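User: quick one, fold this
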Amino acid sequence: MTDAFSRTEMLLGTDAMARLKASRVAVFGIGGVGGHAAEALVRAGVGALDLIDNDDVAVSNLNRQMFALRSTVGMPKVEAARQRLMDISPDLKLRTCRCFYLPETAGQFDFTQYDYVIDAIDTVTGKLMLVQQAHDAGTPIISVMGAGNKLDPTRFEVTDISKTTMCPLARIMRKELKKRGVSHLKVVYSTEPALKSAPSGEETARRAVPGSVSFVPGVAGMIAAGEVIKDLIKDCSHES
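Assistant:
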C-alpha cells in the first residue's frame, strides 16, 4: 500500500526511511534558502524538525520564499511554516522558535539533541557562532553561503570551506573560523560573482538587503537538504 513516502522508499530503502523518521534536524533561518530546505527535509521523511527564525512574512518575500503566500503575509514565518509543513506531514514532530540566532541567544539551544543542522542565516556573527556551537557539540552542520545578487543556479557547489573561491562571505568565514580552531566546514556556495543591484529601500539595522529571484535561493536550500539526507542515511542499506 502506498503512503506519502513510498516513492522515496523505492530509492532509499526501508532502513534509510526509518533513519530519517528517527532524525531531528534544525534549520536556522527559513527564508529563501532555509524554507526550501525545511520543506525538502519534511517531504523526504525527516521525522523531527526545529525551525528558528524571527521574521514575519513580508510582501517582498513572495518572489522566492516557500512559506510566503498572500494568505501568510504578516504572519511569523515559523507559524506559516508550521501551517504548511504539518499539512504535508501530520506526524511531523515540529518545534519552532521565534528568535534571531545570534551570540546573545545561542545559549537557548542544545546542539547535542540535533542529528544535523542547516545554517541558512545571513549574519556573519550568527553563522560563526552556529558553526562553533555545532562543532563543540560534535553535531554535523552544513552552512549556506550567500545566495543574494545571483542569477545562475547552476553555479552552486558543495565543498569544504577551505576549497571555496569567488565568495566573499566564505572568505570571511574561513578566516574567522580558523581563528576559532575550526578548519573544516561543509558549505553550499556559488562561484558566480555577485551582481550589483539597485537600492531597495529595505535596508535595516541588521543588513543591506540584496536583490534575489525565485530560482536561485531555493536551489541552494534544496542542495543543502539533499546533503543532509545523504549524510543521515549513508550507513543504511538501500535494500527495500
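User: anything notable?
Assistant: The radius of gyration is 17 Å.
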